Structures are given as structure tokens and as C-alpha cells.
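Sample entry copied in:
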Amino acid sequence: MKFEHSVYTNDEIGFKQLSLDLLNKSYSIYKTRLRELQEQYSEESVHFFRVSSRRFLESLILLNRFFPSLYYTKIIKAVKKQLNSLSRLRDLQVMSLASVKMKIKYPIIFEYINYLNQLEFEEVNYLKAYFEQVDPDNFDDFIYFIGLNIRTNRLNELQSFDNFRTIILNDYHHLLEWKDKVDTNITRTIHQLRIRNKKFRYLIELSQPVFKQAKKIVKVLSTQQNKMGAIQDNSVFINEFASFISENPHIEPLLKPILEDLFELNIQLISNFAKSSVILNNLIYFNLDEK
């Protein structure tokens, strides 16, 4: 796994500068997306905020491995809380989109769409009020002291480009360990791999300034993440829809064929993932293990 140092010199100065750039860039984008969300709450602003929050979060998690500090813990806890608050809304929106695609074949699904719209309306109102209370500058002091620690810290053997490379390789092998645990009959195990795959994808993205193969690897990881994400989304849909059926017994016979279609779709999605997931074992094709 070769790092190129055209942007950052392969020494203490270069490594510190990369670390500071990862910190400041991810925080700046996070703050921008938060302000956009507060100024105009929309599906698009929520999406961009979620993406920027994850990248900010993974940047902090990575830097904490090199320059440990309690400041990271405080920020990570708060950002995770913000991300978790948006999970329910995303599930509702994904189910709504999937339901709309089924309305021609199953007009009765309008009952479920109306139900989801009401839940989404309530969730949006709650989230608007929640994020109005979030101060975009809340972490400024923490970020300042993290940056100060990076600038003034005397580097050791664990704070280097060599150790960054080691972290990537170790995390890759941990990803493969989770892949080996997948049982396609248990969707929870696929979801657990998806979480690790997502974290590893962000780690590779963070290495892009020095790792020229990063974009190719990210593309592979993103494709697999989308396939596993489709399985998770459909599994959530199945559970939610089954609950809706149990609460509406008067239209149960009309709703059950929809549930059967969802189960069939899950089988197809899992089969598709199982056939292509071997590519995760082949990231070495991109010279990930090259010395």
C-alpha cells in the first residue's frame, strides 16, 4: 500500500498538516451543512447534513487514534446523538418512496402511504425544533484545543504515515473477519457487515490525499454498501408493514400480497449481494497490501 507525498511531505510536518486539514475541513463542512439544515429544512439538507456528520465523525475517530484526547469523546457523543435523531426520518422516507412505486400494482397501499406521511410530518416537526437548539459553533473550543494538541504534540512511532497505513490494513482485515461472520439467512449479520463496510469506506476516503488507489476502493465499498443498505431498508419495511397489517385487520387480505412481494424482494437482494460480495476479499487487487 503505497502513499504518495506530493501534497504532504513524508515527515512529522506533513503528517501533522494532513491531520489538521482532515480536522478543519470536516468540521467546516459539518458546520456549513448544519446551518443549511437550520435555514431550510428539506430532504436534501438532511441528506447532506447526515453525510457531512459521518465524515466529521470518522475524521475525529481516526485522529483520536493518533492524538488521544477527551475532547474527541465529547464531540463524538454529541454528533452521534444528532445522527441517531435522523434515523427514524430516513426510514420513513425510504419506505414512502418504495410504497409509491407499488401504488399502480397495489392501490390499497395508499393507506400505508398516508400513514407514513402522518408519521413523517410529526417527525419533521420534532426535528426542526430539535436542530433549532443546536449551536453550529458549539464545538469551536474543542476543535481549537484538538488542533493545538496536534500542532504541539511531539510525534512518536504511532503518529505517522506508516501507522496510518497499518491502521488501514488492520481495519481491512477486520472487515473481512466480519464478512466471514455473515449468514445470509440472518439479515442482522449483513447489517453488521454494512456498518463496518461504511466505516472502512470513510477511512479510505480520508486517506485520499496520500493514497492514489482510494477512489477505486471507495467505489467498490460504496457499491457493496448500497447493496447491503437495500437489504436493511427492505427488512425495516417488512417489519413496519407487518405491524401495520396487524393494526388494520379489516384490510389484511388486500395487504398480505404486498408483504409477500417484500419477502420475495429480500430474497433477490440477498442473492445479489451474496454473488458480488467476494469482491471485498479482492481489494488486494488495488494493491492494498502492497509494501
About this structure: The chain has a mean pLDDT of 93.
